[in-house]
Amino acid sequence: MSKAATTTIPIVFQSGGDPVATGLVASLNRPGANITGITSLTAELATKRFGLAHELLPAARRFATLINPTSPNAELLIMEAQTAAAALGLPIDILTASNIEEIDAAFARLAQSPPDALVVNGNTLFANRRVQIVTLASHQRLPTILASRADAQEGGLMSYGTLGDDSNRQVGLYAGRILGGAKPGDLPIIQGAKFEFVINLRTAKALGLTVPPTLLALADEVIE
Predict the structure, then answer these.
(1) Terminus-to-terminus CA distance in the chain, angstroms?
(2) CATH 3.40.50.2300 is right for the domain spanning 2-39+163-191
(3) Which residues of the chain does CATH 3.40.50.2300 include?
């Protein structure tokens, strides 16, 4: 981890977890030391993804979620998924994968007992393996909501997550302020950034799903 490598060189990070809970910074308002950055708090995003999946599939009887167990906020993601499913009155299958083979194994398990929808949480591994994940979901005809626009563009049914360009812009702005003399530890952690919701209508049609107008109206982009 970069934090362990230096206490003097300024670090500006982008994180999906809670940087306080993981020990990356002392607090959100005053991170301290040589570190600051942007967090999207992916556990909260997971709750939103479950809500969108339920709006598309109101008759759903069971959901599943895919989580990387090596993620620093894995336990929080699991608790958030369980809470979100319970709020919808639905059981949930928690599947974990930390490498390519485990992704295949997770989908093999899904094939044995298919849920009504799968929520894939934002994670570097899952972003790098989006073609694998989207292809497996397509072969199983499994409605899947993922974390980024690129996932939906690749063929995922829906995506909800941070707007990557905005997060990159915020990192650039903070880097500029630090180069101008600001101390990283005095710059508050930016929370949330901007979010985007994308629907792939081609995938919906392939799955035989009709996307309700209320959901289409919420979308920042509809891929046709």
Answers:
(1) 41
(2) yes
(3) 2-39+163-191, 42-161+195-223
**Residue 60 confidence (pLDDT) above 70:** yes
Instruction: Please say whether the beta carbons of 63 and 116 come within 8 A.
Output: yes
pLDDT band at 40 (very low <50, low <70, confident <90, very high): low
Could you tell me the pTM of the whole model?
A: 0.78
Write the secondary structure of the chain as one string of H (helix), E (strand) and C (coil).
CHHHHCCCCCEEEEECCCCCCCCCCCCCCCCCCCEEEEECCHHHHHHHHHHHHHHHCCCCCCEEEEECCCCCCHHHHHHHHHHHHHHCCCCEEEEECCCHHHHHHHHHHHHHCCCCEEEECCCHHHHHCHHHHHHHHHHCCCCEEECCHHHHHCCCCEEEEECHHHHHHHHHHHHHHHHCCCCHHHCCCEECCCEEEEEEHHHHHHCCCCCCHHHHHHCCEEEC
Handedness of CA 48, 165, 2, 173 (dihedral sign): negative
Note the CATH architecture for domain 42-161+195-223: 3-Layer(aba) Sandwich (3.40)
Inter-residue contact 34 to 185 (CB < 8 Å): yes
**Distance, C-alpha 91 to centroid of its chain:** 20
